[in-house]
């Protein structure tokens, strides 16, 4: 299939087949002859569609800043649970979304997954304009936003099939980072709305995303392609999970992506609680929280491609273990700041607030690096295992590796997303306790990062690995 020219008429863009029967990204000659341009075009629109998916997935992390308790009747603990619901739904949907691109085509599914985002966006807009509904209704509408979380799995599986092994770390990191950046972008839009018209016009945020979701669907229809030889199904996912490495990767992704998405949804609310404790009005607290909340997710999103690139050069295991070491240290900063705050009466001092913000920002940045390095490990592991499949030829080994990698990308993404649910539930429990602070939650986070250090070192760094052995490890 030839590369589509920039000046091709709109009718021709729709009329062309958008279908590639056979795709071999490892064929260097074909790649240089035009394959890389096709892959790049699909990557660009995959990033855009995943970007708006992440934004809609995290829309309630912004909406809670527009929800004074006296008007909406939902307290801080209720809001933490409200933002945990779409995290849970999105994580579960990542499993079926993983196989959707192989069944329906990457282009076709991207169009559908972008258009379906209109449903939760419209529902959120209506509910925010009519706050008299029950908490259950808010929970159901928040759950609808979970469809945005599924976009990640289908997008990553699709792009994994387009790129050669030597470029997967960068391509997957860029695809995921561009998607992740949807979180700080919607928070930045919320900040601009609050700064210009106050915290009484959440409908503006929703209206903007109605336009963006429609644009993403149109771009996918015009510029993306379906791959005829793409394979990823539930049987492949089951086969990939026979390998012990798959479960280890999923566990580590809880620590990286779970941290990113969990803190992304909760950071603004944690800040708002502290500003309210300092004497701000609800409107002032919302503005001050929004001014800071987007910085962490932005840095984490930008860091993700860098994590993939470093893993390409240095090794995924090495980057991952040092990332968790630094995350444990950042959690230690939060523990110290929280303990000092708990020991003093009244609002947190300026120094403690700075420590809170710096600790969270460091966690965001490091989780982004870890996201890239952990996902680089997935195709590397299965590429190595594929070389031991003596009954397959080169093309068969590449197809097996892509199938296993694509399946695990979706499963690990689902498990990692559940880490975000855990973060919000731990924070909710921490604020519901007698101290009504997040210090207990910080201790839990730090302990988990220490466990991730130990697992990464033992499995991937302690002894030389025999990835060429393809026999699955026995079930434990």
Automatic annotation (TrEMBL):
Gene3D superfamilies xref list: MFS general substrate transporter like domains
- Compartment annotation: Membrane
Cite the InterPro entries for this sequence.
MFS, MFS_trans_sf, NO3_transporter
Membrane topology classification: Multi-pass membrane protein
Q: Does the keyword Transmembrane helix apply?
A: yes
Q: Which CDD domains match?
A: MFS_NRT2_like (cd17341)
One Pfam annotation reads MFS_1
Alphabetically sorted, this entry's keywords are: Membrane, Transmembrane, Transmembrane helix
Q: Which residues cross the membrane?
A: 43-68, 80-97, 109-129, 135-153, 174-195, 201-224, 245-267, 287-307, 319-340, 346-369, 407-427, 439-460
> In terms of one coarse class, where is the protein primarily found?
membrane
**Record's family?**
Belongs to the major facilitator superfamily. Nitrate/nitrite porter (TC 2.A.1.8) family.
Record protein name field? Nitrate/nitrite transporter
């Amino acid at each position: 299939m030839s590369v589509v020219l920039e000046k091709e008429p709109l009718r021709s863009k729709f009329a062309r087949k958008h279908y590639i029967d056979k795709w071999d990204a490892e064929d260097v000659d074909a790649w240089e002859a035009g394959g890389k341009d096709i892959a790049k075009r699909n990557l660009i629109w995959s990033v855009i569609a995943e970007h708006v998916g992440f934004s809609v997935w995290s829309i309630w992390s912004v909406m809670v800043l527009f929800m004074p308790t006296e008007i909406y009747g939902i307290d801080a603990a209720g809001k933490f649970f409200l933002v945990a619901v779409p995290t849970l739904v999105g994580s579960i949907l990542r499993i079926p979304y993983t196989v959707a691109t192989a069944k329906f085509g990457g282009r076709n599914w991207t169009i559908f997954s972008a258009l379906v985002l209109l449903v939760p966006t419209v529902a959120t807009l209506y509910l925010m304009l009519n706050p008299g509904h029950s908490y259950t209704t808010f929970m159901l509408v928040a759950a609808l936003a979970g469809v945005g979380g599924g976009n990640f799995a289908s997008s990553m599986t699709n792009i994994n099939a387009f790129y050669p092994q030597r470029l997967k770390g960068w391509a997957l990191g860029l695809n995921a980072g561009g998607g992740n950046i949807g979180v700080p972008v919607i928070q930045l839009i919320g900040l601009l709305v609050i700064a210009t018209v106050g915290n009484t016009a959440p409908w503006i945020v929703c209206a903007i995303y109605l336009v963006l979701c429609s644009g993403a669907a149109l771009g996918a229809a015009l510029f993306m392609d379906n791959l005829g030889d793409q394979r990823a199904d539930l049987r492949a996912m089951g086969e990939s999970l026979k390998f012990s490495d798959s479960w280890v990767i999923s566990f580590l992704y809880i620590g990286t992506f779970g941290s990113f998405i969990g803190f992304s949804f909760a950071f603004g609310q944690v800040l708002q609680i502290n500003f309210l404790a300092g004497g701000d009005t609800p409107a002032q607290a919302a503005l001050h929280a929004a001014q800071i909340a987007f910085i962490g997710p932005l840095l984490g999103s930008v860091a993700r491609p860098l994590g993939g690139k470093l893993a390409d050069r240095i090794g995924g295991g090495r980057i991952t273990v040092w990332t968790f070491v630094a995350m444990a240290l950042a959690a230690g900063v939060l523990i110290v700041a929280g303990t000092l705050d708990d020991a003093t009466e009244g609002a947190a001092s300026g120094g403690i607030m700075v420590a809170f913000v710096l600790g969270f920002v460091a966690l965001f940045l490091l989780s982004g690096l870890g996201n890239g390095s952990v996902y680089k490990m997935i195709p590397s592991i299965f590429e190595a295992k594929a070389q031991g499949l003596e009954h397959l030829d080169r093309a068969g080994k590449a197809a097996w590796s892509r199938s296993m990698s694509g399946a695990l990308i979706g499963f690990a993404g689902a498990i990692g997303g559940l880490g975000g649910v855990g973060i919000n539930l731990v924070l909710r429990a921490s604020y519901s306790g007698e101290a009504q602070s997040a210090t207990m939650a910080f201790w839990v986070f730090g302990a988990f990062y220490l466990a991730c250090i130990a697992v990464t070192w033992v499995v991937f760094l302690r002894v030389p690995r025999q990835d060429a052995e393809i026999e699955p490890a026995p079930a434990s």
